Amino acid sequence: MKTKVTIVCENSIATPFPLIGEHGLSVLIESDDTTLFDTGQGLGILHNLKTLGKDISTIQRIILSHGHYDHTGGLMQVLQAVDKKIDVYAHPDVFTNKVAIIPLGNQTLEAPIGIKATKEEYSKAGAVFHDISGLTAITPSIKAIAEINRPQNWVGFDSKLKQKLDDASIKDDPFNDDCSLILDTELGVVVLLGCAHAGIVEILHDISEQTGIKEFYAVLGGTHLESAPEAYITKTIDTLKHFKVKKVGTSHCTGFKVACRLSYEFKDSFVNASCGAVFEF
Predict the structure, then answer these.
(1) 134-178 pLDDT, tens per residue?
(2) Contact status, residue 262 vs residue 273, Cβ threshold 8 Å
(3) For residues 14 and 272, what is the distance between their CA atoms, to the nearest angstrom?
(4) Based on CB atoms within 10 Å of each CB, which residue in 71, 125, 136, 276 is the most buried?
(5) For 20-53, b where at least 16 C-beta lie within 10 A, e where not — what string?
(6) pTM above 0.85, yes or no
(7) Element (H or E) spanning 63, and its range?
(8) Residue 217 near residue 182, CB atoms below 8 Å
(9) Ordered structural domains, the chain, with CATH
């Protein structure tokens, strides 16, 4: 059975339909049944699903890529609209206290950027939580991967993104909750990225090492390369070519300049994975 992937929420709009663009990401996966990957900020999720002709009652499960507000902000709205018990898959660290430390002249601003409600509040609204740990089977055709294997002393490129601990101290976010999806489709393996905070290079290599997969038909989603150094961007391009990726679709946190660079490198194999874009595999 073909797999249809629809970008429901994203920073930009790919169609003339009256969709709502927002800084965030949500992806609907339709195959044997229906899976929602992330829920955006919550500004457009319900409106966009309706505008795209999607029946929210058919969603069988929700998977969260990590605990930032722009990927989890619409979760409560979706739970309330579904109005029944629904499986929600996430790494436990989605509920850590995530903050951004933003420099403002000689001062800094601490901004909350984490998930909006508690696990108990979501559960009360109908969420039945299941932990993602390492490589986790979700359905016969969907796997999730978190706790990505990275070099010792690994630090993310975006130095603003932190965790606030119970003692109020601040540390770099290790992003163990950063989760990507592996879809088994008729055309080959498709990787869906939330933000790739754990590093797109590291994610693709870890998937390959844990599954034995040597080629990916498509890699779609946020790559968080806007703040990456040139050497890592080059390494990303080399990695995508190494795995013989036939379709590269970037969105959300990739950054305009990096998206242009990837478009130049991959020519007709590149596409903007914007809100309203549909991919069939």
Answers:
(1) 999 999 999 999 999 999 888 888 999 999 999 999 999 999 999
(2) no
(3) 8
(4) 71
(5) bbbebbbbbbbbeebbbbbbbbbbbbbebbebbe
(6) yes
(7) strand 59-63
(8) no
(9) 4-280 (3.60.15.10)
